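Need Epithelial splicing regulatory protein 2's 3D structure for a figure. Predict it.
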Amino acid sequence: MASHSDTLVVFFGATAGANGGKLGSDEREIILLVWQIVDLHEKKVGKLQRCLVKPDTLELTDQCKEETGLTLDEVVKAEPLDKVLQQFQQSVSSELKCLGRSTYTLCVNSPLVIRQALHPEASKKNLVLPECFFSFVDVRKEFHKCCPNAGPVQKVNLFTTEKTEHCFGTSGSNNAFNDAILFLFLDHKFSSVETVKYKFDSGTCSKTEPVDSETVIRARGLPWQSSDQDIARFFKGLSIAKGGVALCLNAQGRRNGEALVRFVNSEHRDLALERHKHHMGSRYIEVYKATGEEFLKIAGGTSNEVAQFLSKENQVIIRMRGLPFTATPQEVLSFLGPESPVTDGAEGLLFVKYPDGRPTGDAFVLFSCEEYAQNALKKHKQILGKRYIELFRSTAAEVQQVLNRYMSTPLISTLPPSPIVSTRDCVRLRGLPYTAGIEDILEFMGEHTVDIKPHGVHMVLNQQGRPSGDAFIQMKSSDKAFMVAQKCHKKTMKDRYVEVFQCSTEEMSIVLMGGTLNRSGLSPPPCKLPCLSPPTAYAAFPTPPAILSEAALYQPPLLAAPRPPQTTTHSPAHTLAYYPPHPHLYMNMNMNYTAYYPSPPVSPSTVSYFAAPPGAVAAAVAAQPHPAAAASPVLPQHGALVRMQGLPYNTGVKDILSFFQGYQVSTCCTEAWI
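Structure prediction for Epithelial splicing regulatory protein 2:
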């Protein structure tokens, strides 16, 4: 279709829900299409064509009935959208033939009918739209250029949805529209023809590239297996910037169901916000504003190797996980086979490595088309060497994130462990009403409130962030804690008796971090369990002591915040965390440091705080006769340990050693918990 001609096709539509400025915002289907040909050369207007469309969901809102004058009975008898679009093409082609024309310009009173209604609905129904719907002229913007004093573009309305005797959008409103069209387009040159992208273009983004915050949104609630193409399809009709989809990963490198999307301008970003809670399959997607800094943090990269790998345009990216550490490019190419050729052979492979050059077992592969990528995905969990290989769809932004995460170095220097002394100057309250707050606890403590340290009340929250019925209170001394445990034990709070126990700061820390403390002993949380060591450049660092006296009352989950220098008691607890401690750094007790490096995008995206079997790791702690002599909650380790959950019941030591093939494992350090 030509970008400009002396023949116009004025196009209008209505949905079964909201219309006007909110057209398409409620995800309702199109029920009416109206069009009319305008011959600017002969100064004539063709016959107004009106076609009803039968939606899949036979329901009209009251607002729709009032504005269009349509009834459900009329809509039920109509043709579906694909048939009506065929009628549109046949009708326009026939009239153009009579006029001796072959091209025309599609004009709309508002881009919403094209961008927010027609393209999204056609995408959901897998309809292929005619080429004419991928470029159009916004009549309001053209009118505003001719008459800049007419008011804001959004308020310019050249034809309305007034109903008349038999036709919707005709008669008086039609005459006014015709006059405006003839006035506007006589000898007028179209200066801005808007286009709709056929597909999303992947690409890279530099950290130094300026990104306007008015063009970025955050999509939340995405299926974990969704790709950048799926997200682009969700925003079909809107123009996403090249490489403008960045899937977010959590601290463990797993997709967290969020993505940052960058559009070409603020107008398209505003239209994207109107798709809040629209559906992708059976899931509704939340859409919020985001900033350019957030987008660059996820999608930006500085690695020349990654930039060169992603420099090839229109490539499908596949992530491979579980490769043998000795795998070569030729072995990977042979594994994929001739039916899924890699772009440029070995140049289309990117192996992910640790900073010291050791392979991680991950790689990214480029394919020139969707067919080759689908053939490669069929090899998911097939064997290469002695290992099965996982294959998943990936994105350019995910390549940047994974490489940045693997190649990054710790920002905090390694410090020797500090001597820690255990003091039982805390009390634990168990069995609190779930509605109990800080004031209720202070009232429960009565006269002992004066002996609480400043900011010394800590509510224990469950995984959903709600009160769990437990709380810890830091007292000024162990004697004060003993008195509280004696006098307040099994006192009543809101018709429930509350148990009060004396405990140490370290025991409080273990529970606040997700561990368990009961009669069977102390079980450390997942973040304190020994886990697989990172590269040799990163030793396992001991963590700082428990909660500091100035800690907040409620610890927000998954948040680390720096704190001013504190003076506190210490204990000799040694943990294996990949973030080294610092005297001036306070790590929130609810953070789960289960891993430093990312895992595949298909791993479960939720992080749970599963406690270890009671007393399995720290039985020695509970067995100490005196608090001052309490040992570390985690037994001293010279190497690094990993805890495995969900093993088959008949698993033996040999099976475990075979699972960790390629790692240095000491057979004497393999232990099973019964």
